Amino acid sequence: MNSLDTSRFQDTAGEREFAYDPDTQPELFEGVRSRRFLAFLIDATIILILTFIVGVFVFLLGILTLGFGWLLYGGIFPAVALIYTAMTAGGPNSATIGMRTMGLEMRTWYGTKMYHLLAAMHALVFYFSISILTPFVLLVCLFNGRKRCLHDMLMGTIVINSRNQAEAYGN
What does the angle CA 163 – CA 97 – CA 92 come to, to the nearest 5 degrees? Predict the structure, then answer.
């Protein structure tokens, strides 16, 4: 009977350390909170515009289907927001359009770029935490050095300055 080599299946998560340290890399965290808020406003505006556009198509679909298409109206905003976040934050830039505008990136706590599923789950946890626990959960970022919100901690993500932004703060 052959013995199975299980060394490649061992969990190395316990050996990992945070990739970003505010004490040794303060330029990565400088001004993140305020620019993250502005990035959220930009993204919310984009999501509302996209929701309006999709709403127009659903209206036309409703006319073609004698009103049945209008049943989709309830899910337009959540679907657009989730798809927008998954495709942008989970994309190659690891940032939404608002985050890129403000010079921010989202990474996993151990330093890798985001992927689509993690970005979608991050958005879901954000919306659920805000709606269930009230917006006061955002105050969590005021009490930790990495400026992570509750949903960041739950999902194992971190928002940092992009390389260009960090270089600007480093000088």
Answer: 60
